[in-house]
Design a protein that fits this description.
single chain; 351 residues; mainly alpha; 3-stranded mixed β-sheet; 3 strands; 75% helix; transmembrane; G protein-coupled receptor activity; G-protein coupled receptor
Length: 351
């Protein structure tokens, strides 16, 4: 693709209104830093501009309302869930340890994107430094991979509990859980090399990222260097981490469903199927928008409207964190009992 074609594809992602606003901000930043021209400005110096949702700029204020509500609900729900699990010794079991890990990852994942997105929607605060953009990108990908690994650990926990209940305590020992936690954190570093892959590139074009947050390919497309390595590394990292998780989770739930259908009681089957169904829905809400974002950014081109891509990318950082405390927590009897005990204890202490 030639330079003129690249610039055309870049501008096709953003509306004229967004382009005009972004150019004004770039010119202001460039003059403040004594840069000579916008097109020759170094993104490392001037930073990046996050446009929000191109084509829906006039709807930013209205879009911020559901985004803010979901973010607050995610913070409150996951925060309460973590407090319940930590405060109740009866919940210090593998299933609830994994659930507290999922809640922690959800809080951090949504917090890595939503504050900046809402500041952009409300205040027009679209500028972010280059290093800040790299930091946000790293934590988004790190936490997404960690979230995926925890979902896999929870699927394995459900598989052992349903398919081999007598071996549950011997399989999921404290040592095994510690190894799972260590493996989750270690494997999440798979996106760390992407920082160096982006730093090696030469940036010489207008530094507009048509998104609400910084993504690997969003930053890479600002470069006028060859980004083939970035494209294929990002794709390989996604497939080898989350792709493998999806396969293993699917295998776990296939075995779980086979065990459920062999249950003698119809009520037990119905209850188990309802629980599995809700878990699968949350997992699909998490993976489908994320994988769509990964493939659309690399291969979608102009065939997919930009605002569709960005809206779906925002869904996987707020909807699953909002739903997880409800699906995995509020519908669990032990969590309800723990919540009653925790709030009862707090009420007694306040008197």
């Amino acid at each position: 693709m030639g330079e003129e074609q690249f610039e055309g594809s870049l501008y096709s992602y953003v509306s004229p209104l967004t382009q005009a606003r972004a150019l004004k901000k770039i010119m202001a930043l460039s003059s403040a830093r004594s840069t000579t021209a916008v097109n020759d400005s170094d993104t490392r110096t001037t930073g990046c501009l996050l446009t929000g949702i191109p084509g829906l700029e006039h709807q930013h204020i209205w879009l911020s309302i559901p985004f803010c509500a979901m973010y607050v609900a995610a913070l409150a729900g996951n925060g309460i869930l973590i407090c319940i699990i930590l405060s109740q010794p009866s919940l210090h079991e593998p299933m609830y340890i994994f659930l507290s890990m999922l809640a922690s990852a959800d809080i951090l994942l949504s917090t890595s994107t939503m504050p900046k997105t809402l500041a952009n929607f409300w205040l027009g605060s679209s500028h972010i430094s280059f290093d800040g953009c790299l930091t946000q990108m790293f934590f988004i990908h790190f936490l997404f991979v960690a979230d995926s690994a925890v979902l896999l650990a929870m699927a394995f926990d459900h598989f052992v509990a349903i398919c081999s209940p007598l071996r549950y305590t011997t399989v999921l020992t404290s040592t095994v859980i510690e190894k799972i936690v260590a493996a989750t954190l270690t494997r999440s570093l798979i996106m760390f090399p992407s920082i160096f892959l982006l730093k090696r590139l030469r940036y010489c074009r207008i530094n507009i990222i048509a998104h609400t947050f910084c993504e690997h390919m969003g930053i890479a497309r600002l470069s006028c260097s060859d980004i083939s390595i970035n494209v294929w590394y990002g794709l390989a990292a996604a497939l080898l981490s989350t792709g493998l998780d999806i396969i293993l989770i699917a295998v776990s739930y296939i075995h779980i469903l086979r065990a459920v259908f062999r249950l003698p009681s119809r009520n037990a089957r119905s209850k188990a199927l309802s629980t599995c169904g809700s878990h699968v829905c949350v997992i699909l809400f998490f993976y489908i928008p994320a994988l769509f974002s990964v493939f659309a950014y690399r291969f979608g081109g102009r065939r997919i409207p930009r605002y569709v891509h960005i809206l779906l990318a925002n869904l996987y950082v707020v909807i699953p964190p909002m739903l997880n405390p409800i699906i995995y927590g509020a519908r669990t009897k032990q969590i309800w009992e723990g919540a009653k005990q925790m709030f009862s204890h707090l009420a007694k202490e306040s008197k």
